[in-house]
Design a protein that fits this description.
alpha+beta, four-stranded antiparallel sheet, PH-domain like, 2 domains, 8 strands
């Protein structure tokens, strides 16, 4: 079970989940395949130790490149933004939507071509939160803005008191 699923409240639903750019996964697979092919070639020419080192380095590089995508979760719910990193040491930032003032998008030329970029969040009374490069940052920014709009509309309903529902025993 993911951290996002574990940390959801009773009336909380997930709007969007961000993913790392696919280029990172492609790079990891290219490194792994190249290293294994190099190891196989060295083994065929009777350099077994070098072939084994090639294969071991390829697997280590593959895991190193994909460690962050495997251990990072970024999600927007109807109440907050969740950003969790780490496997052995967990670091989680939960940013309430009501405290977000500004959502910025940073996308380079190559980011526009391959549809990846960074989303930065600025708020009141909280530290700025800069997310790593993610796939489709425009859609993720839109999801944050929609969740912010829904949160503000719910808070501004005249004559209605919004109370959390009690759990049934």
């Amino acid at each position: 079970m993911s951290y996002v699923e574990q940390s959801l409240g009773d009336n909380e639903t997930v709007h969007s989940i961000a993913a790392y750019p696919t280029g990172r996964f492609a790079l990891a697979w290219m490194v792994l395949i190249a290293g294994l092919v190099g190891g196989l070639a060295a083994t065929l020419y009777e350099h077994t130790l070098i072939g084994g080192l090639f294969a071991l380095c390829a697997v280590a590089a593959f895991c190193w490149i994909l460690y962050r995508p495997w251990t990072t979760e970024i999600a927007v719910t109807n109440l907050r933004l969740i950003y969790k990193r780490g496997f052995f040491q967990r670091r989680a930032n939960d940013l309430q939507l009501s405290s977000i003032e500004e959502v910025r998008l940073r996308q380079s030329f190559w980011g526009r071509i391959f549809n990846f970029g960074h989303v930065e969040l600025y708020g009141t009374g909280v530290a700025d939160l800069k997310l790593p490069a993610i796939n489709d940052p425009v859609a993720f920014q839109k999801s944050i803005q929609e969740a912010l709009g829904a949160d503000k509309q719910e808070a501004e309903l005249p004559g209605q008191l919004v109370m959390p529902s009690a759990k049934a025993s």
